[in-house]
Every structure is written in structure tokens, then in C-alpha cells.
Amino acid sequence: MKVFIAAVFAMGVIRFALTISGLPDGIVKYFSMSVILLAGTLYFALRTDTHKERLWASYLLFFPYMIIEVAALGYTWVSGHPTIFHSTLYSRGFPLAAHALGHLVGGLTWEPLTAFLLMEIIWAISLLFRRK
């Protein structure tokens, strides 16, 4: 778990550094925390033994993501410097404050719960293959 937490956090920091250094969003978008989150979701779906462990893993995976997102949106809010974190592609037209609040609430509720649900589905499918 520590490796995935560190990888999500590191990728977020890299993404932030690239965007504030002026790299275009078209390049920065390839430095994706989502890919690491998806890999972690798949890994923990297959490597955990209980529903509780998968639920805990989903929250731990999304915690560094939420911290980076909210911090980067806070930076944009305070500095006025645009970043990829609040670009048109990712903000869906929401004002900055609503976007930041949405990530804070989403990072504590529906985002990890969606990952948990995906873990449960992957785990259930894997059971079918294990029994044969």
C-alpha cells in the first residue's frame, strides 16, 4: 500500500510541477494519477482477502489523490495561476470553489466507494476463475 500511496502522491507532485512550469496541458495530462489508482484498484481487488480490507484500501488509495487535487486547486485559487487541475477538460465548467469542494467531498465519499465497488466486482470475477 505504501508504494501505491507514494506513487499517487509523487505523480501528483510531478503533474503539479509540470503544469506550473508552463508545460501545455496536452503533455501534462499523460502524467496521470488515475492510471496509478486504477492499477492499485486492480492489485488490491486481487490481493486482499476481505471486503473490509478492500474498502480500507480504496480509501487509502484515494487519500493522496484528494490531497494533491485540493492543494493544487487551492494554489490556483490563491495565486490565480491556471493549472491543469482546473482546466476546462477537468473542471466541467464548475467554478473553482465548487470544483475544489467537489474533490474534497468526492475524495472522501463516492470516489473511494466507486473504487471499492470495482474491487468487489473484480474480486468476485476472480473467484469464478479460482474455483475452476
Strand content: under 5%
The helix tally amounts to 7
| Overall spatial form | elongated
> How many strands appear in the DSSP assignment?
0
**Beginning-to-end CA distance, first to last residue:** 29 Å
Q: How would you spell out the order of helices and strands?
A: HHHHHHH
For the biggest sheet, the summary is: none
Supply the helix-strand structural class: mainly alpha
- Give average pLDDT, whole number: 94
Report the C-alpha radius of gyration, rounded.
Answer: 16 Å
Instruction: Give the oligomer, counting copies of the same chain as homo and different chains as hetero.
Output: single chain
Helix content: over 70%
Low-confidence stretches: none
3D structure, described in words:
Helices cover 80% and strands 0% of the residues. The protein is mainly α and 132 residues long. The longest helix is centred in the middle third of the chain and has 29 residues, at 51-79. The protein is elongated, with a radius of gyration of 16 Å. The model has no long low-confidence stretch (mean pLDDT 94).
Please specify the SSE layout and strand pairing:
Elements: H1 2-20, H2 25-28, H3 33-47, H4 51-79, H5 88-91, H6 96-108, H7 110-131
Q: Can you summarize this structure?
A:
By secondary structure, the chain is mainly α.
Tags for this model:
single chain, 132 residues, mainly alpha, 7 helices, 0% strand
